[in-house]
Amino acid sequence: MSVIKIITFTTMDYDQYKRASKLPDVKTTIFTTVGNLARKHAALDLSQGFPNFKTDEKLMSLVSDALINGHNQYAPMQGYFGLREIISEKIVSLHNRNYSPEKEITITVGATQAIFTAITAFIRPGDEVIVIKPAYDCYEPAITLNGGVPIYLQLDAPNYKIDWTAFKNKITKKTKMVILNTPHNPTGTVLTKSDMEELERILKPTNIILLSDEVYEHIVFDGKPHESASRFTDLAKRSFICASFGKTFHVTGWKIGYCIAPAELMAEFRKVHQFAVFCVDHPVQRAMADYLKHPSHYLDLNNFYQEKRDFFLDGLKSSKFKFKPSLGTYFQLLDYTNISKEEDEVIVRRLIIENGIASIPISSFNVDNRNDYMLRFCFAKKKETLEQAVEILCKL
């Protein structure tokens, strides 16, 4: 009769492994924490960035067709060529920049994997990476895991504009990469042409890589263009540009995106990509290739989400919140200083438990959890959901 030996960790063993952790300071994300609390108290959830309305039936039908037609085995490592080809055509049409489907476009498991892969391919121990805060929370762990050093540029509320002189002063001989995000999560700001030209001017005499997070590329308001890094010749030469079909087409759970970069950068990216995930869901890629043949599927998004933003903000005009309308993304910041001077994490918890509505505290994205007295609300929701949210918020 065999005896199964159960191995347990002693306190000493656990402490040893904890000290060896590559991410000793990383805790459960604010999205998980708030989401769990919202579910526990059955709160209206405007915290995490995903829609609560249905996906286009045409897109779902295309996925079903791809399944039925036998596209159920591995896709090419770089991604289905037909999808890469139509992405190339889209970028030419929107930004007048040609990327080779063969050598310069890779399909990824969402934009987060693209971002992680680009960082892993190039960041070595001691390399500095400039991170503009507030920043989405996937950047810094990827930098740290690869031995890099995040260098922070903190933006100030309520405008969250980049001071390009301060940015330039962050650059040293150790700076290997800059991470940029426009349209910007969590603030809803959008970089202008003059911003991108100034960035281009600053980086031109350097060999710094630009990692441009453009997952909200098709959600920009008030008739403004999305100033992709691909529009600027010198920036395009040094940039990884990461995008998300999940965000664009209301299918965040499908985890599909893409990355574009010059061939010499993409070759290194693919070395990591092939061993991290190898390839992405094949039938979904086939469906996306067909769906993108109709540009209205993404060109109409600006108006679609602007209507939701305007409906949400019109309802809040009688509230005590202060706000500047979001210029892009499907997030809106609300300044709550007329209601409370509590720390934002405290008021977020109280609003969930006592008032039944969930949001995200901006301090979670700031350097040293600085409190800007701002809460982030997602307005990618059904009209009735936004009506309920407005009713709650106007009573505060």
Description:
A seven-stranded mixed beta sheet has the order 2-8-7-6-5-3-4, with helices on both faces. It has a three-stranded antiparallel beta sheet with strand order 9-12-11. Strands 1-10 form a two-stranded parallel ribbon. It is 40% helix and 14% strand. The radius of gyration is 22 Å and the shape is globular. It is built from 16 helices and twelve strands. The protein has helices at residues 11-19, 30-40, 57-68, 81-95, 110-122, 139-145, 164-169, 193-203, 233-237, 245-248, 263-276, 282-291, 296-299, 301-315, 344-355, 383-394, and strands at residues 44-45, 105-108, 128-133, 149-154, 175-181, 209-213, 239-244, 257-260, 331-335, 357-358, 360-361, 374-378. It folds into two domains: 11-55 and 301-394, Aspartate Aminotransferase, domain 1 (Alpha-Beta Complex), CATH 3.90.1150.10; 72-297, Aspartate Aminotransferase, domain 2. With 396 residues, it is of the alpha/beta class.
